[in-house]
Amino acid sequence: PDIERHRKTLLEMVASENREIEVNPLRGYASQEFSSLIEKYDVNQTRFLGERSGCTFEDDDNPFILRDYDLCISCNRCVRVCAEREGDYAITIKGRGFDTQVTTEFDGVLKDSSCTFCGQCVQTCPTGALADRKALRAADLPEEIEKTRSICPYCGVGCSVDLISKGDKLVGIQPAMDGPANKGALCVKGQFAFDFVQHRDRLTRPLVRDRDGLLKESDWDTALDRAAEGFRSIVDEHGRHAVYAVASGRTPSEANYVIQKFI
Ligand code: SF4
Ligand code: SF4
């Protein structure tokens, strides 16, 4: 009971400093942790009302990470994950007491630091002070947030991700904390580069060139038959070494598998 009482007092101190406690879960994976504890310990949020620490960095207009330090409780988790998991050391803590603030080298914007925009600080922040700016674009959509487990399509590592959607719209990505290949980590592409999925310019059907060389919409059987015919005629004419492919660890596993079968 003593420890529980101390916990409650500490929570009351940090809660009294924050602009708000309830935040949109789109802010990040751990963004509901603080509000859950406030509820669990029945915290009086105004007991220590007074001076506040943290100052939201409004000038950092990067497209990915909102640095809303009014909500920061100086837990240091973002600094540790950046240094110990990402190995980037892009952020640190400056000042002490009410002047404590998460900052970058020379107190600048993230794009001028060594930040790779991997998003791990966002996903570990327990208050939503660091928030996923892209996901928050969908804050006003009325549908419930749904999570669907999937695999990042970008390279051969195969990081597990949770696709965040509202209705039919993909609104964000969160790393799967239990993903065997990534254990909660992602790179900037897996974390933030998902707009292509539902982009209006994305091809949804294969294109095949007609006799005049113009691309025409087609079906998969026709397109694959045409590609196979092309490869076959090259092999017939010039031998099997006339066809080659370039594979790499940066290619998705599925593509690498097809290439080793094909070549
Ligand atoms: S996005 Fe990644 S690299 Fe940038 S500050 Fe956060 S943890 Fe560090
Ligand atoms: S993880 Fe969030 S609450 Fe903790 S120090 Fe970083 S910005 Fe502040």
UniProtKB/TrEMBL annotation:
UniProt xrefs under Gene3D superfamilies: 3.30.70.20, 3.40.50.740, ADC-like domains
A Gene Ontology BP annotation from the UniProt entry: respiratory electron transport chain
GO molecular function: 4 iron, 4 sulfur cluster binding; metal ion binding; NADH dehydrogenase activity
Every 4Fe-4S Mo/W bis-MGD-type domain range: 145-201
SUPFAM superfamilies from the UniProt entry: 4Fe-4S ferredoxins, Formate dehydrogenase/DMSO reductase, domains 1-3
InterPro entries referenced in this protein's UniProt entry, alphabetically: 4Fe4S_Fe-S-bd, 4Fe4S_Fe_S_CS, Mopterin_OxRdtase, Mopterin_OxRdtase_4Fe-4S_dom, MopterinOxRdtase_cofactor_BS, Prok_molybdopt-oxidoreductase
PANTHER family in alphabetical order: FORMATE DEHYDROGENASE H, RESPIRATORY NITRATE REDUCTASE
Name of the protein in its database record: 4Fe-4S ferredoxin-type domain-containing protein
Source species: marine metagenome
